[in-house]
Amino acid sequence: MLTLRGQQALQQADLVVGFKTVLDVVTPWVKNAEVRPMAYRDQEEVLEYAGSQAALGKDCVVCCWGDLNVSARELLLRVKRRVDRIELIPGISSVQMACARAGISLEDVVFITLHQRKEPVSDLLELVHYLKENKRHVVLLPRPWDLMPASIASRLLTEGIPKFRPLTVYQRLSLEGEESWHGTLEECADATQEFSDLTIMVFPIPEMHAEREADAKGVI
Ligand SMILES: C[S@@+](CC[C@H](N)C(=O)[O-])C[C@H]1O[C@@H](n2cnc3c(N)ncnc32)[C@H](O)[C@@H]1O
Fold first, then answer.
1. Ligand 1 lined by 65 (C-beta under 6 Å)
2. CA 142 / ligand 1 centre spacing (Å)
3. How many angstroms does the Cα of residue 12 sit away from the middle of ligand 1?
4. Of 61, 171, 173, 194, which has fewest CB within 10 angstroms of its CB?
5. Residue pLDDT, tens place only, 114-167
């Protein structure tokens, strides 16, 4: 799902950096660039190097999964701190992929990410709020590895979300090894399988509520 503009940026780059797993996917489109993979522990050094190369007039590309406007704020801020000029090239987000696979429209969705370095309490409360409200589908990014589908489902059960609430967990969307798991909240809480770090959860509005909404609209 790499866009044409993304491919072009990679082909024209002098330096390409990003987390190793991301670079493994995009390197086939790199032509002449130096490729510098990074990990959480050395990302500051690698980005510092990219900043120094950009200052020398080199064309540097920093890659992230999906779309940079979706749950990639921390990386974006680290890059913005180091350069004066940056072109943001949007991509296809895992959120859009999940909507396509689930057959739902973005305008009917509430998106919540737990994939942030902060206390997740308020995000979890928001999640509970929207699941109880039942007005929109909820698309959720878990947090590797402490807030993954089974532990999120257990927390939701303790917050009073019904155990038969359906959900789908998508893994590695559009990538090799893509998979989906479908079941109830209770089944998800009991799931012993290991989910990938590239996992996204979709809680569709339960059909009963969706039908009621449609009826109400028909009456109007
Ligand atoms: C730091 S966030 C970045 C999100 C990304 N910017 C996007 O637009 O999808 C990383 C998280 O996004 C989700 N994610 C990214 N790519 C995915 C994929 N191909 N399949 C499923 N989930 C994915 C996972 O929850 C992963 O832990």
1. yes
2. 9
3. 25
4. 194
5. 998 888 889 999 999 999 999 999 999 999 999 999 999 999 999 999 999 999
